[in-house]
């Protein structure tokens, strides 16, 4: 497939996630809620998770943002739904490296989010792409920065 056709495919997937975001809305019940914003451009996200037995059982986001921010949030929810907290933390790190232009092993684990690798060419857009992922990172760690996974093994 030619480079321009591949670029067009990537753009189309990003536009589709932006126009029709997956897991957009709120949850009836959640174990974590967080709101974050990107003061540089005004993107805002409210992220809700329901974590049971260390697995992200439900996830939803709401807010307002540019197409990159919204698409990234949609892609992130698809990538982490059904994953353990530890797996989600690994994906967060992989995505952060990806959008900084660093090589990532198991890029396919990110699903459609891997298509945002081109953001690395536009440093001003990296914060847009990582907003939802940073919200997830804060939602799955406690105040000291430690994983919340241990909290779900209590009897």
TrEMBL record:
Residues in NIF system FeS cluster assembly NifU N-terminal domain copies: 10-128
InterPro entries: NIF_FeS_clus_asmbl_NifU_N (IPR002871)
SUPFAM superfamilies the record matches: SufE/NifU (SSF82649)
GO biological process: iron-sulfur cluster assembly
GO molecular function: iron ion binding; iron-sulfur cluster binding
Family matches, as Pfam families: NifU_N
Family: Belongs to the NifU family.
Alphabetical list of NCBIfam families matching this protein: SUF_scaf_2
Record-given protein name: NifU family SUF system FeS assembly protein
Organism: Enterococcus phoeniculicola ATCC BAA-412
């Amino acid at each position: 497939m030619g480079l321009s056709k591949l670029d067009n495919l990537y753009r189309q997937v990003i536009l589709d996630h932006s126009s029709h975001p997956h897991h957009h809305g709120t949850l009836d019940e959640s174990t974590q809620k967080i709101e974050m914003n990107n003061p540089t451009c005004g993107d805002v996200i409210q992220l809700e998770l329901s974590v049971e037995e260390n697995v992200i059982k439900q996830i939803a986001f709401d807010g307002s943002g540019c197409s990159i921010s919204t698409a990234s949030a949609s892609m992130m929810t698809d990538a982490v739904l059904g994953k353990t907290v530890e797996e989600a933390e690994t994906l967060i790190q992989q995505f952060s490296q990806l959008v900084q232009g660093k090589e990532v092993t198991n890029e396919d684990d990110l699903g459609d989010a891997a298509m945002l690798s081109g953001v690395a060419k536009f440093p001003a857009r990296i914060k847009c792409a990582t907003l939802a992922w940073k919200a997830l990172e804060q939602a799955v760690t406690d105040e000291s920065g430690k994983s919340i996974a241990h909290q779900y093994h209590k009897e």
